[in-house]
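Whiteboard transcription, Tuesday session. T.W. wrote the structure tokens on the left side:
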């Protein structure tokens, strides 16, 4: 029997309803559970530290924001992470090929393999999927809890469309691999994993254990070009487009004349000037064998 700490964000779209189902399924798979529900995401890491000597793994139920809030506690305790996707986008689960079906996700935790994954880091903040500035920050600011609950996964597309029509480019300086690029961009995104924003691909060949960060900068002139790009962004081949700059490195620096907010895994956590880096093999997760 494995002892696990089960943490569920009851404010996630499906959290409360799924907590009892998850508990039942995991106990049937021979887990002994300590169950804690979180009111505030920032308490997650403290809870993990509190139980570190009583459990063998941590199971987190929630979306990408909830998972992100657990990173510090997981790094400190070195406990492996099991994921129950209960959010709107579930991009980390998608990257790791963890099914969104609750019973199947529980089965992965019971019989999957421990896999070491990289983390992204910017100005002291960690991220699994992506950190970005520009358009995606504006989308985050518009993507309220009400919109998410009302529209579900469609909330991202609906909000993105509204935001794209009003977007304005900004100037930035990107320093990477001893080179410096001055750009006029609608959005700069730096990815660690494969997916973000409800199924957009960071880059065609990006993986969460390739020990690098993938940057793209959308240097389009008008809103209709961004709309035209959207299908390619789902495939990850937007990096082949003429007005998209694509770079990859282990360390990246971004400066802007005016301080600009930066979004990490869907939450605004820091701002420019920003230093990014990849932390290879930083965290153990349980993924399908």
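and on the right, the sequence the group agreed on:
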């Amino acid at each position: 029997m494995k002892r696990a700490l089960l943490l569920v964000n009851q404010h996630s779209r499906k959290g409360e309803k799924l907590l009892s189902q998850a508990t039942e399924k995991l106990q049937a798979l021979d887990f002994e559970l300590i169950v804690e529900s979180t009111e505030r995401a920032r308490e997650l890491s403290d809870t993990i530290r509190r139980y570190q000597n009583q459990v063998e793994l941590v199971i987190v139920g929630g979306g990408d924001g909830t998972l992100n809030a657990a990173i510090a506690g997981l790094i400190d305790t070195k406990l492996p992470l099991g994921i129950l996707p209960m959010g709107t986008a579930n991009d980390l689960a998608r990257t790791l090929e963890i099914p969104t079906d609750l019973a199947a996700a529980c089965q992965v935790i019971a019989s999957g393999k421990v896999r070491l994954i990289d983390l992204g880091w910017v100005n002291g903040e960690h991220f699994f999927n992506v950190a970005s500035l520009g358009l995606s920050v504006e989308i985050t600011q518009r993507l309220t809890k009400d919109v998410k609950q009302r529209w579900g996964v469609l909330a991202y597309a609906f909000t993105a469309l509204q935001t794209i029509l009003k977007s304005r480019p900004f100037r930035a300086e990107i320093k990477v691999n001893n080179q410096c690029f001055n750009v006029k961009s609608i959005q700069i995104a730096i990815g660690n994993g494969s997916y973000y924003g409800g199924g957009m691909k960071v880059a065609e060949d990006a993986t969460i254990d390739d020990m690098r960060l993938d940057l793209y900068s959308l240097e389009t002139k008008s809103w209709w070009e961004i709309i035209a790009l959207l299908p390619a962004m789902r495939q990850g081949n937007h990096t082949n487009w003429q007005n998209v700059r694509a770079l990859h490195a282990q360390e990246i620096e971004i400066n802007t004349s005016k301080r600009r907010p930066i979004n990490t895994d869907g939450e605004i956590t820091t701002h420019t000037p920003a230093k990014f880096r990849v932390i290879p093999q930083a965290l153990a997760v349980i993924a399908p064998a």
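Someone added at the bottom: The radius of gyration is 19 Å.
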